[in-house]
Amino acid sequence: MRFAKIGPRLHQSYFMQHRMAEYRTLLKQILEHNYRFLTACQYATLIRDNNPPNVPVCILRVDVDTDPCGAGRMFEVEQELGVRSTYYFRLSTIDRALIARMALHGSEVGYHFEELSTLAHHRGLRRGVDIDLIRDELRREFRSNVERFHELTGVAPRTVAAHGDFLNRRLGVMNNAFVDRQLLDEVGIIAEISQIGLWQRGTARVADRPAPVWWQPCPPQIMLEKSPPVLWLVLHPRQWIGNWRANLRADLSRAFAEAEYMWNRLTAATH
Fold first, then answer.
1. DSSP letter assigned to residue 35
2. Which of 67, 105, 184, 209 is the S-S candidate for 246 at Cβ 3.0 to 4.6 Å?
3. What are 167-194's pLDDT values in tens digits?
């Protein structure tokens, strides 16, 4: 039973070429259902101004967790179709040339932040950590990293999205746990995209998943048949591009991070 999951995931990570034909077909299907593509910033601005869209809209979000080259392949398909989307880059996955092309096309580039899991990793923090004890430090790091993101990319992010790290699941707390409206205003951010205000009535969310599942909660084509007024697609290049070098680096980095975290946790317990 376990191999039924591991086998397809190994094939996806190290032997699959790409799913760009499927990606192109999906975007065409959304367009054929008369959906208008908005960036996260455009949509958040409409909601903030109490002016929700009066036509069906799709917000296409791509989290660049490990593979900016794969993100570039996806972006090329969007360029062909005139689709504008939102890409969230971690500090470790920034590709300035690609980001410049995205900005020129009219797509949005935002910051995929992870201050909480980074601090937890370095400190060896355990489940049930009291966020209030480290909130000020997290906020300082967030402000600093938003500025750093701007310097590295040439783009001042207008929306941000929390990265999901393995440590978030271990600790039972998400990376956005310390973020509030005041902090976002201080750094000129319109929205952290999980904010409840963005999820108006009738919003549907579909996210890609590793093989053999592929989609959660269902394929977007099924969701399209229900004609939700707002469709959020949350995608990751790793699920679409079989870049084995990038995937191997990511898997080795994850294994090293797990070991380092356990060491930091042990050493923290002895002090």
1. P
2. 67
3. 899 889 999 999 999 999 999 999 999 8
